[in-house]
Amino acid sequence: MEQFSKAAAHIIDDVLAHDPIAATFAGVHTYDHDMPDLSADGFAQRQARARAYLDTLHGYDSAPLDVDDRLDRDLMLATIEVKLRELVEVQDFRRNPSLYCDAAVNGVYAILLRDYAPFDERLPALRSRLEQIPAVLRSGTQNLDRPPRIWIETALDECAGAKSFFTDAVGPLVDDRPDARRALHGALEALGAFETELQARLGRADGAAFALGRDLFDYKLAREHMLPYDADSLLEFGESAVRSTQAALESVAARIDASKSWPQLVEALREDHPSEESLLDEYRRSLAAARQFVVQQALVSIPQGERLNLVETPAFLRPTLPYAAYQPAGAFDAKQDGTYYVTPVQADAPAATRRDQLLGHNRYGMLLTNVHEGYPGHHLQLVRSNRVSSVPRRIFGDSSVFCEGWALYCEQMVLDAGIDPDPRVRLFQLKDQLWRACRVVVDVRLHTSGLSFEDAVDFMVDVAHLERFNAIGEVRRYTQTPTQPMSYLVGKQQIMDLRERERSRLGSSFDLRSFHDRLLSVGTVPIALVESRLAAT
């Protein structure tokens, strides 16, 4: 229906105009000079706009719409309803100082991330956003009211990273540009003042709660993710997955060396890694082999023209990306080139530190990482998502259950297809699955049943066998992102269940590559919406 399409386009234009950082990341550069209004009044206006969007969408009955417009309407309604409820009930702008640190860094990083225009053409937007950072951080000082202590600690670490980014990454770019250099100096001063404010608040923090609460947690499961779970049934799923994965680990470990436990085997196998000098070259060879396997086995179609650039992680990102990460192209970028960051060993670090860093780049984990981040994982899925004809799905299609579930599903799928029959690779795949199963348990218990931060860290150390330092970083993130940590394993299971339902529905005409292609063609939306679209074809 043309009228609905115009209404949806108007909402999207308005969303991007008021979220200029998201617009830049998406490849829409109309608002590159702007920063979001993070004042209390700005958040009140967000509520008003969300209500207006919902009024517009409710004005269109779903019955006359075709299947794609109906999917877009359902997606937009669900996304905006959840955001509105969070704005009213959670009010992160009063509780989470990371909101302001993230805006300061990402506003600038989005301008520098891609060479969508020559640097001299991007410089005015860079300077403009730098000039607005003091106002962004002043809004934080004015808005914050009893943030949880753990969130203040997290934001202080982020402030330190932000200062490093501005000094080390942005500074050299504007050294000979006086106006931009002055704007950078002002941004750094504002960061220092915000950091001082957070330090003072840390000294008088009183243990304010971070838990979302059962009612809103259940609402997000049902409305945002469209899952058939509440907190109780999700916890049951997670605990069952922990037990079954532990049993699978023990079985595989016995095949490798019955005299050692699976944690002992993992620790020993981590010693099989490339040298410091050959690290990136080996990643590139392994990545190319994963791509070739996908092609040879006809697991999923690879779009023409896609490209994945594997590069060293920029220095300012290395403290938060110890091993590897994927940065997709924007939904509207002309070039759909993904960037795959691999963090090299720190050349000037002590020998023991360099050795520990290499352990994380072991060859068994490397294969799985390349599958998860590259082929057929995040890169392939997000390139396909960016090519969906539906503009609403390009903007609102950011389902963590689909995105993270697909990447985790791919790890098992390629092993089942025979990419490497070595049981040692299967051991590492199951080890990582156990970690994701533990995330489900901790996610539910942190936000609905009073699990403390310290007990959650202990659980991730004792059961998932994470190093304590990494477990602390993980649980810090879990406290701020309720229902995201459960997405990985839940999403994988959702895709596997959908695959079996499609196999039953289609019978002898079912084809695995066709299933994967149709799955990815819908966009990064909740699996329930994907299934409704597949059923219509």
Question: How would you characterize this protein structure?
Answer:
The protein has 537 residues and is mostly helical. It has 2 domains: 2-203, no CATH class; 231-489, no CATH class. Helix content is 68%, strand content 3%. It has 24 helices and 3 strands. The protein has helices at residues 2-18, 20-26, 40-58, 67-89, 92-95, 98-113, 119-143, 149-174, 178-203, 214-224, 231-256, 262-269, 279-296, 351-359, 363-373, 378-386, 391-396, 400-416, 423-448, 453-462, 468-480, 487-506, 512-521, 527-535, and strands at residues 307-312, 324-327, 337-342. It has a 3-stranded mixed β-sheet, with helices on one face. The radius of gyration is 23 Å and the shape is globular. The model has no long low-confidence stretch (mean pLDDT 95).
% residues in beta strands: under 5%
Radius of gyration: 23 Å
- Number of helices, where a helix is a run of at least 4 consecutive DSSP H or I residues: 24
The biggest beta sheet, please?
3 strands, mixed
Decide which structural class fits the backbone: mainly alpha
Mean pLDDT across residues: 95
Task: Provide tags for this entry.
single chain, 537 residues, mainly alpha, 2 domains, 3-stranded mixed β-sheet, 68% helix
Compile the SSE list and pairings:
Layout (H helix, E strand, L loop, with lengths): L1 H17 L1 H7 L13 H19 L8 H23 L2 H4 L2 H16 L5 H25 L5 H26 L3 H26 L10 H11 L6 H26 L5 H8 L9 H18 L10 E6 L11 E4 L9 E6 L8 H9 L3 H11 L4 H9 L4 H6 L3 H17 L6 H26 L4 H10 L5 H13 L6 H20 L5 H10 L5 H9 L2
Parallel strand pairs: 1-3
Antiparallel strand pairs: 2-3
